[in-house]
Design a protein that fits this description.
This protein has 235 residues and is α+β, with helices and mostly antiparallel strands. The protein folds into 2 domains: 77 residues, no CATH class; 140 residues, 2-Layer Sandwich (Alpha-Beta Plaits). The strands form 5 sheets. It has a 4-stranded antiparallel β-sheet with strand order 10-11-7-12. A hairpin with a 2-residue loop joins β2 and β3. α1 crosses α3. The radius of gyration is 18 Å and the shape is globular. It starts with 5 loop residues before the first helix and ends with a strand. The mean pLDDT is 93.
Amino acid sequence: LPPYPGRALHALFYQWLALGDYSTSTKVHDQSGPRPFTLSPLYRVDGQPTVYFTLLDDTLWPALSQGISLTPTVEVIGRPLTLPPGGPQIEHRSYADLAAGAQTDTRIRLRFLSPTSFRSREMHYPLPDPSLVYQSWLNRWNEFAPEELRINVALLDIVAAHVAVGRYDLRTEMVDLGRNRNTVGFVGNVQYNVIRAGKIGDEWLRRLNLLADYAAFCGTGHRTAQGMGHTERRR
């Protein structure tokens, strides 16, 4: 399989969802705004093909888990893939858990594991601009988090004034989107430094860290539901 079979895995997700609950699958497919799920590229873990799916909306899990249980073997781009006998490995973190665990670090280290890009002025923008990165995370957080945990968009003013790129080790990669379409994204490591942190206070600092923690679930940039923007927080 190619390393970025994003369209095929995207279709597989909807196949599972429809098997579990067709109406849920249709609702998710037709809704506008950020997608309530992300997926990773195809990795090799201990020699086995591995893909990470994340749900930003817990209400999708019953339908998805039911669909997965009905398909022990799936086909991706004409190749059969057998799921582990015990089913998928599952990690659950609630929005409340993420908010409660937010720290006040002033150095935020990230690894972008799959090509990451943004849509800016109708163009692809393959650079980790802090404002675009945080806007991506904030939009998803406020779309799916409980209302009482939503974050004021004034955070983006904090980012513009206080978050700077400290270090980076990046390269660009092309992604084949199928149908003769390609896009470019960046992969690698970035460190953001929160400058003049004393002026913004611990609560805003926690929100900056909270969204960086959330990145592991929501991804970064566009096409996160097709394998782009897979992100992890590094400590």
